[in-house]
Design goal:
This protein is α/β, with parallel strands linked by helices and 319 residues long. The protein has helices at 4-19, 32-45, 63-74, 85-92, 98-119, 132-141, 175-184, 189-192, 212-231, 284-297; strands at 24-28, 49-55, 78-83, 125-127, 165-167, 240-254, 257-270, 278-279, 301-306. The protein folds into two domains: 4-192, HUPs (Rossmann fold), CATH 3.40.50.620; 211-306, GMP Synthetase, Chain A, domain 3 (2-Layer Sandwich), CATH 3.30.300.10. Bound molecules: xanthosine-5'-monophosphate. Xanthosine-5'-monophosphate (XMP) binds next to loops. Residues 2-194 form the GMPS ATP-PPase domain.
Length: 319
């Protein structure tokens, strides 16, 4: 009889057998997969594991602090936290093409990760939160022609040529099983139940140029939106919900004055795998409440719209 407790025990034995007394490095992204992989591996080999968290400056508001707090303070995992936001935002200056944003962030991420790894004196193994669907996808990706709509950059995924042996303890699991394993490991619901978040972060939720100021505006709107979703008890019914800061300004009225500020679009979808998605049917009352809060509380936004496009033909992200 297969249980998550049994999987956990077996996985720990397998990790110990593979790693021996070697050193393991794991890139943490704040997402479910790399988080669960890190906690599982830490349980198996303790201080032989070092995690590297690269802050690219386009995380959600408060996310970095939460990752550092959780892994360092709660799980006692050795964690290198590198704030590389100046570097990333500097290189994103003037970049408006979505694919160039992804490539810029992907390239810098690898550079910074390699730098941090070198500072640690290298390692014998690289841990990754690869899941079963990722394994299938990379096999089928070599099996025939396919259409690439977006060059997915995933901060957990590092290039083959990093020459370390891989530790991938989640390779046999689906997403819901990874969540269950995380719970079995005593991880907080705010991590195991978290919505997927793209590797390039808020950079692909700011069509047009990404600046520090625009990132901050979006972080505020996004935080209000998610706070209201959680308060309404809707978070777990939704696959992904986020705000997008549009490169469009509209005229509005505030008190006696005219405003001319940015438009924000809200997105929320249901999905089982991200391949297809339906719009989440919020009530008008909910949407108008969120809109009022964002316009009142976030300087720089004076109009809010709700994206009602399903996938296909739309994609979940705007870029
Ligand atoms: P789309 O927008 O293609 O997104 O419908 C499908 C799922 O993939 C996520 N996504 C990404 N994840 N790097 C990632 O790690 C990326 O570059 C990227 N682009 C999209 C998106 O959030 C959704 O869950």
């Amino acid at each position: 009889d297969w249980t998550m407790a049994a999987f956990r025990a077996e996985a720990i034995q397998r990790i110990r057998a593979q790693v021996g007394d070697g050193k393991v490095i794991c890139g943490l992204s704040g997402g479910v997969d790399s988080s669960v992989a890190a906690v599982l591996i830490h349980e198996a080999i303790g201080d032989q594991l070092t995690c590297i968290y690269v802050d690219h400056g386009v995380m959600r508001g408060g996310e970095t602090e939460q990752v550092v707090r959780t892994f360092r303070d709660r799980f006692n995992i050795t964690l290198v936290h590198r704030d590389a936001s100046d570097l990333f935002l500097g290189q994103l200056e003037g970049v408006t093409d979505p694919e160039r944003k992804r490539k810029t962030i992907g390239r810098l991420f690898i550079e910074v990760f390699e730098e941090e790894q070198a500072k640690l004196g290298g390692a014998d193994f690289l841990a990754q939160g690869t899941l079963y669907p990722d394994v299938i996808e990379s096999v089928s990706a070599t099996g025939g022609p396919s259409v690439t709509i977006k060059s997915h950059h995933n901060v957990g995924g590092l290039p083959e040529n990093m020459r370390m042996k891989l530790v991938e303890p989640l390779r046999d699991l689906f997403k819901d099983e990874v969540r269950e394993l995380g719970r079995e490991l005593g991880m907080p619901e705010e991590i195991v139940g978290r919505h997927p978040f793209p590797g390039p972060g808020l950079a692909i939720r700011i069509p047009g140029e990404v600046t520090r100021e625009r990132v901050q505006i979006l972080q505020k709107a996004d935080a209000i939106y998610l706070e209201e979703i959680r308060a309404a008890g809707l978070y777990d019914a939704i696959w992904q919900a986020f705000a997008v800061l549009l490169p469009v300004r509209s005229v509005g009225v505030m008190g006696d004055g005219r405003t001319y500020e940015s438009v924000c679009a809200l997105r929320a979808v249901t999905s089982t795998d991200g391949m297809t998605a339906d719009v989440y049917p919020f009530t008008m009352e909910f949407l108008t409440r969120v809109s009022a809060r964002i316009v009142n509380e976030v300087r720089g936004i004076n109009r809010v719209t709700y994206d009602i496009t399903s996938k296909p033909p739309g994609t979940i992200e705007w870029e």
